[in-house]
Amino acid sequence: MTARPSPFASTAIERHTISILVDNEPGVLARVIGLFSGRGYNIESLTVAEVDRDATLSRVTIVTSGTPMIIEQIKAQLGRLVPVHRVHDLTLEGPFVERETALVKVAGTGEKRVEALRLADVFKARVVDATITSFVFEITGQGEELDRFIGLMAELGLVGVSRTGVVAMSRGPGGI
Amino acid sequence: MSAATNETSLTGADIVLKALRDQGVEVIFGYPGGAVLPIYDALFQQNDIRHILVRHEQAALHAAEGYARSTGKVGVVLVTSGPGATNAVTGLADALMDSIPIVCLSGQVATHLIGNDAFQECDTTGITRPCTKHNYLVKDVNNLARTLHEAFYVAKNGRPGPVVIDIPKDVQFAEGAYRSPADSMPKSYRPQVKPDLNRVEEAIDLLAKAKRPIFYVGGGVINAGPVASQLLTQFVRMTGYPCTTTLMGLGAYPASDRQWLGMLGMHGTYEANLAMHGCDVMVCIGARFDDRVTGKVSEFSPNSVKIHVDIDPSSINKNVRVDVPIIGDAAHVLEDMIRIWKARGKQPDKAALAEWWEQIEFWRARDCLRYDKTPKIIKPQYALERLRAAISGRDDVYITTEVGQHQMWAAQFLPFDKPNHWMTSGGLGTMGYGLPAAIGAQVAHPDALCIDVAGEASILMNIQEMATALQYRLPVKVFILNNQYMGMVRQWQELLHGGRYSESYSEALPDFVKLADAFGGVGLRATEVSQVDDVIAEMIKVKRPVIVDMCVDQKENCFPMIPGGRAHNEMLLGPDEKVENATPEDGMVLV
């Protein structure tokens, strides 16, 4: 006897971007993070900020990876946290945009400094701080794009990087 | 603050008491301390809510669990800050694992001292976050009433669980406005109780076509209230299909019924485990495919279509992949199942079912719970069989247990025909659970017979609660199967560690008869088979707390047993079976 085939049969590791709407109350981030560490799930990236001051709601974006069964578990576990209003798997629910911002500090002089500035232009990174011997670039884009830019800067006097982690939103008119 | 609010302004401590009254709370279990003195003061000045003073905060939690499980109400606990809260942690984790509704109020140091390492300060919400369903720190007295009501809502709705409310001492003194329960619904928490009917239709179709069906039922049916057990019984009888229950589900289906195959899992019956292994359609209702139940997951019931009914979406597809998930309250789902089964005029496949029962009866004929009945020594199973005989026919018996061999024997040998009469620490496996849980059940049912089936090691973990039993004249019975070993540890050491009994023998045990006497209770002992019935009769007759020291066979092991890492069809039925190769290497790491 058989039922319809299960979507959870696959054991391939998938990367999913999950958006969560939560009450902005003390401890809510600890609950989300504790769930991931306590149950052994991966967090590739996690961002959070208040998005509705009147309703005191925050939006959390998590990038995680696992088998389809694990991803389903993660969403179910998130869904049963009391302060969680909604859980959306953007990866499953259709096209979405994903962005990340990085601040990249590069120090150097001469040809390397010129090359850094030229590459920044190519990548559409903005200069947000400059001294005679250094720049801080601000770059926004997909994670891989940031990785490539930072990789190139490593050759040109990279001092340090600060990244926001991923924020994401579905395409089209629908809300969370 | 407006004039209207001023009129109803109360201190935080009074708000706590008023909220508890409005929630219908009649009894709380607790232990005072510096950070909860204002609440204890308010408690002193009223008569509606009874306080049971325990002797250790862990016991307050277990007593509240016993109270909750035997009544279906929320158990309420009051403890102080720091060590009061940390002592409560084991009980909270226990209630979380077994889905027991608990509201635990803890005192906290004053808000301006939080984070200063003040005396008896700990980060209670931080420590209890992973072992509660939810927790709160209330820093503003005006949020106190709403938070209390919300806590009760969260504790009992959806999959039940423990909720902690941490209340700083200055908030208990401060004055603020009261809010009613109706005015205090949580903003976001709305668990789904009604199932998707398409899924129920699909399940009924599969069930009607089944040739080798089985019901696999857990504690979720008991949590859904007595009506769920009635509906389950009705549906199982309507179909004529076999039914097995988990440790937590005992009592959800009458144990005296022919269609019940006994408990399944590691120490479950031969017929229940083989039926699970061989079935073609499995309906799991309110159980969670726990590792004690499934054995080796990759070989668990390999040829069945699995239907899983659970109120908690995170229980679905967690350990075992299921084909038809149904999210909802067990009572609602069973009601829909019965209605749809009747409406569609479904009938079981009678020929296939007869064949299936014939197979099951063949397995049942192995009589897997039989043991060597010797007149020389008291077998623990014999003691429980005699206890069963002594309590049969009574419906006012509540059984609790500690954790270990005695717990499994109690599950195997005692009769549970109704829900809410059996309380054991299933998920967390907490030694020391049984005595305080029996106290909680006895508080709820003062005239009932509350028996803690115990081991001599477990009972010592919360033996101080004998004083609680005496103080409140609670005639609980502690029925110790004393083999002088941590029996389950010894059994595993015998089967898996070459008989090296590392630290599992208790060299210095108290004289339990004198111990009962010292607490002011009654101590009884049986060392010979001929004494067993008299001791049990006397235990039941005495209307005071009793400790029975039943001196049983030291070497008896608990069978049947599925060794770690083995499948349902690889059970050990008794000591004569080969144990050398009982567990494969990858099974050794399993608990």
UniProtKB/TrEMBL annotation, chain A:
UniProt keyword terms in alphabetical order: Amino-acid biosynthesis, Branched-chain amino acid biosynthesis, Transferase
Enzyme class: transferase
GO MF annotation terms: acetolactate synthase activity; acetolactate synthase regulator activity
Highest taxon of the lineage: Bacteria
CDD domains on file: ACT_AHAS (cd04878)
A Pfam family matched in the record: ACT_AHAS_ss
Signal peptide feature range: none
UniProt pathway annotation: Amino-acid biosynthesis; L-valine biosynthesis; L-valine from pyruvate: step 1/4; Amino-acid biosynthesis; L-isoleucine biosynthesis; L-isoleucine from 2-oxobutanoate: step 1/4
Subunit structure: Dimer of large and small chains.
Family assignment from sequence similarity: Belongs to the acetolactate synthase small subunit family.
Protein name: Acetolactate synthase small subunit
Organism: Nitrospirillum amazonense
Organism lineage: Bacteria, Pseudomonadati, Pseudomonadota, Alphaproteobacteria, Rhodospirillales
Automatic annotation (TrEMBL), chain B:
Source species, domain of life: Bacteria
Domain spans labelled Thiamine pyrophosphate enzyme TPP-binding: 403-549
Classification via InterPro entries: Acetolactate_synth_lsu, AHAS_TPP, DHS-like_NAD/FAD-binding_dom, THDP-binding, Thiamin_PyroP_enz_cen_dom, Thiamin_PyroP_enz_TPP-bd_dom, TPP_enz, TPP_enzyme_TPP-bd
Metabolic or biological pathway, per its Swiss-Prot or TrEMBL entry: Amino-acid biosynthesis; L-isoleucine biosynthesis; L-isoleucine from 2-oxobutanoate: step 1/4; Amino-acid biosynthesis; L-valine biosynthesis; L-valine from pyruvate: step 1/4
Keyword NAD applies: no
Family that this chain belongs to: Belongs to the TPP enzyme family.
UniProt-listed PANTHER family: ACETOLACTATE SYNTHASE CATALYTIC SUBUNIT, MITOCHONDRIAL, THIAMINE PYROPHOSPHATE ENZYMES
Protein name per its UniProtKB record: Acetolactate synthase
Organism: Nitrospirillum amazonense
